[in-house]
Amino acid sequence: MGWFVSGNKTKVIAQDAPIVLVKERLKKVEISGHSRMTDPRGFYENLEDTIESYYYSFHNTLLLDFRFEYINTGSSKLLYHMLTHLQLLADKGGIVEINWYYEEDDEIIQEAGEVLESLLSIPFHMKEI
């Protein structure tokens, strides 16, 4: 079950959606868990709008932490689309930085991060946990 948490607000997002946690003081959005929705388009379009809104409210600065346990192909494609949009914002003088966490023995999540890192020009940090 996906959750969106910002300050003292919590909202259930969708079955099989990741958890989204906003840490306003740190100018950070954390996305974790499973992303295995059959049709993830609505979730990721909404997430893109939400993250862009936080980017501006954080004065054109945003740190994204990804801690996926599983992400399906459809979600990966939409995540890439969202990150390319954020890259355009960063190219206009903003700051966007990504931390991609993966477990030592999880080659699939590690490889997904490496692919995204190779396709994007924003700072992308692979972090083994």
Characterization of this structure:
The chain has 129 residues and is of the alpha/beta class. Helix content is 38%, strand content 35%. It has a 7-stranded mixed sheet. Helix 1 runs parallel beside helix 2. The chain is globular and about 35 Å long. The mean pLDDT is 91.
Determine the structural class based on helices, strands and strand pairing. alpha/beta
Q: Strand count, sense and closure of the main sheet?
A: 7 strands, mixed
- How much beta, percentage-wise? 25-35%
**In CATH, what is the class?**
Alpha Beta
State the helix count: 3
Rg over CA atoms, rounded to whole Å, is: 14 Å
* Order of SSEs: EEEEHEHEHE
Distance between the termini: 23 Å
**What percent of residues adopt helix (DSSP H or I)?**
25-40%
Q: Tell me, rounded to a whole number, the average pLDDT.
A: 91
Q: Segments where pLDDT lies below 50 for 5+ residues?
A: none
Gross morphology is: globular
Q: How many distinct beta strands?
A: 7
CATH topology: Transcription Regulator spoIIAA
Q: Which architecture does the CATH hierarchy give at level 2?
A: 2-Layer Sandwich
What is the strand arrangement across the widest sheet? 2-1-3-4-5-6-7
Number of individual domains: 1
